[in-house]
Specification:
By secondary structure, the chain is of the alpha/beta class. About 35% of the residues lie in helices and about 25% in strands. It has four domains: about 100 residues, Nucleic acid-binding proteins (OB fold (Dihydrolipoamide Acetyltransferase, E2P)), CATH 2.40.50; about 160 residues, 3-Layer(aba) Sandwich (Rossmann fold), CATH 3.40.50; about 60 residues; about 40 residues, no CATH class. The strands form three sheets. The protein has a five-stranded mixed β-barrel. Helix 5 links the parallel strand 8 and strand 9.
Length: about 375
């Protein structure tokens, strides 16, 4: 096409149109502050959000002294400014010249209202908090399967205890559909724990983000499912300074996903060290008992050492047996025997021939890869 224009020409044209619009160069915008960032360059970056939208804003260093109010995350403010075009990235933001704080925003009010409501209903009461198991065999993780948080969680758990089985429930943790995804997967984890594989503890969370990125964890539906869960839940949302409704309802709140992984499992090497330290302490105490008859002391000493050594051996055998059991029940090993997992396009697992539709395409998960297949016919046995 001879009349085609380049991307930079298009962005340049849009920039000229927008910066010459008198309304866009002198406008007042109302919203709540999210992702407030005082950059080391001296500039201030944040977003203005409401229930349905978001726009990025910047206060350049040269204009910071003209802002006479203190900006806080979650405040509702009115800014005056003009459109600012980033040609290279094809994005726009608001160049803020002045700001006026109105107070707490709608999202902050909604958070406080829901927190007060659930607190009155008793969802935060300590009497409902479940204790975490001392020696868990299986940990469920409810987060995005592709984010950095899941990799941190898996790494920390395996470094501390490579005998623990990890079940990952891929979950949306941002956006309008996230609350339903979180609530549904908490239900699913409890169903799996009751009918298939017992889950001893469940980590629910995501990595850091702006205030609006964490809103799905301030949902009443999510709070209720956390409260109803029979599996003890560790809430691990965002950074240490972030607090969500999920944190108040959960049995334990962790500052970060990494901290949650540390809380969830015991350290195998630490357990072994404690056993050997106990042996050493017993030896020292026995050696200090001068009143004992030498022959009786030696007999008692040998008996104690033998008993403790047997306990160590039995503990190591128990750990090895647990490792064998976990390995045999690993889903990937089961797939290695010729079995496969069939899922629909939305990743839901097909458990019965009734769930198959002729001519539809399905995913087949094997031990060493995936494939797609079309159903030509079906017959119930």
């Amino acid at each position: 096409m001879a009349n085609a224009i380049s991307v930079s020409q298009l962005n340049g044209y849009i920039e000229r149109v927008l910066i010459t619009d008198p309304l866009l160069n002198n406008m007042n915008i109302k919203g709540e502050i999210s992702g407030l960032n005082y950059h080391k360059s001296g500039h201030i970056y944040f977003s203005l959000i409401d229930a349905k939208g978001k726009v990025n804003c910047a206060i350049w260093r040269s204009n910071v002294n003209n802002i006479k109010v203190k900006l806080n995350e979650g405040d509702e403010i009115i800014v005056s400014g003009s459109i600012n075009i980033y040609n290279k990235g094809g994005t726009y933001s608001i160049n803020v010249r002045s700001a006026e704080v109105m107070g707490g925003g709608d999202l902050a009010k909604a958070f406080n209202d829901l927190k007060e409501k659930l607190e009155k209903l008793g969802l935060f009461d300590l009497e409902h908090k479940k204790s975490l198991p001392e020696f868990p065999k299986r940990v469920g993780v409810l987060t995005s399967a592709t984010g950095a948080a899941i990799e941190d969680i898996k790494r920390i758990i395996k470094e501390k205890n490579n005998l623990v089985d990890i079940l990952i429930f891929h979950t949306l943790v941002q956006g309008l559909d996230a609350p339903r995804s979180i609530a549904d997967n908490i239900k699913l984890a409890n169903l799996v724990s009751e009918t298939e594989k017992q889950i001893d503890v469940l980590i629910v969370g995501r990595g850091g983000g702006a205030k609006d990125d964490l809103e799905c964890f301030n949902d009443e539906m999510v709070a209720i499912e956390i409260f109803k869960s029979k599996i003890p839940i560790i809430s691990a949302v965002g950074h240490e300074s972030d607090f969500t409704i999920a944190d108040f309802v959960a049995d334990v709140r962790a500052e970060t996903p990494t901290a949650a992984a540390n809380i969830a499992v015991y350290d195998v090497e630490e357990v072994k060290d404690n056993i050997y330290r106990l042996i050493s302490d017993m030896v020292i105490k026995l050696s200090n008992i001068e009143e004992l008859n030498s022959e009786k002391a030696n007999s008692y000493y040998n008996s104690m050492i033998l008993g403790l050594r047997n306990k160590v051996v039995n503990q190591e055998k128990a750990i090895e047996n647990a490792k064998i059991v976990l390995t045999e029940n690993n889903p990937l090993n089961i797939l290695g025997h010729g079995y496969a997992i069939i899922t629909k396009e939305d990743d839901n697992i097909v458990k019965s021939v009734e769930g198959l539709t002729v001519d539809d395409i399905y995913n087949i998960v094997l031990k060493d890869g995936k494939a797609k297949a079309k159903i030509m016919s079906k017959e119930r046995s």
